[in-house]
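A protein record in our archive is deliberately plain, so that people and models can read it alike. The record that follows is passed on verbatim for readers who wish to inspect the format.
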Amino acid sequence: MISGPPIAHSRPTLDAQDARAVAQAVRSGWLAQGSRVEAFQRKMAAFVGVRGGVAVNSGTTALELALLAIGVKSGDEVILPSYVCAAPWLAVRRIGAKPKLVDIEPDSFAIDPVQAKKVLTRRTRAIIVPHLFGLPADLTRLQALHVPLIEDCAQTLGATERGRKVGSVGAAAVCSFYATKLLCTGEGGMLLSRKAVILEQGRVLREYDEEPLLVPGASNRKMTDLQAALGLSQVRRLRWFLQRRKAIAGMYRKAFAGTGVALPAVPSGRTHCYYRFVIRLQDGRHSSLEKVMARLDHRGVQCRRPVFRPLHRYLNLKGFPESEKAHRTALSLPIYPSMSDRMVRRVVTVLREELA
């Protein structure tokens, strides 16, 4: 029997150098947006392979800036999947645009290009493309719709679609650096783009102090140098973070092969960076997800729904069968770089026993 302290579903991976980086920022006396933010923007843009970045106070803010920067206005329509967290819907509504929800692909959890095409109208101005759980969406088919894409890379930095890094394909991309994301600054986000005009518009809207003009919509959306100091320290280990996640995913794949649970799909032409390791329980064979999670919690292994509630459920909408199926069957297992092999083996043992 493998035992030990409770295993959290997710947690940040921090070390002494992270702490020193933040302490150095404090000792410098410069805490607000400054040189560390500028350096962090350059590092992230270089990692994704785009012209530049605009660091802000959250991933949701980055989404809002991306929409405004590409010219989405009040009354315009923006397509997004139902199976996603609330942030994209909230960003669209906050700028006065109209969200148009669509269903996801059956296996990848990604926005379905076929369904997106069905809701295109003359008022469609953008498609928000969340790359969920570490797997890129089908950018090639989405590009064929000839609508500006905003890539949401909050969970999928470093993955590729047909050899292209996520974040480098759409008109704009956004990142989140929340505490448990692929790399963290505590809170924070970034708008990224290969287009100078989008980056400049993002900067104009991010702040208003000492600017030559009053810009309607400009606000204080800045990231601090304290946050950027942590981000810069985390970036140096990002490739190792991704390698460790892939190693843990490999252990899970080997352990759960042939058990009757569906393992994460990796369609041809896409790579996975395993922000989440999401399995699907068999409809009708296993207990409800709530009961399974409660039993696992009781045994010290915290598993969660990867999306708390699809957007269409909040809005009492019908007609999203794949999102409904994902809500019934998708279970996210603990996976983060600071997990030891022993912790992984314990997750495997407990989950196999509970699903037997």
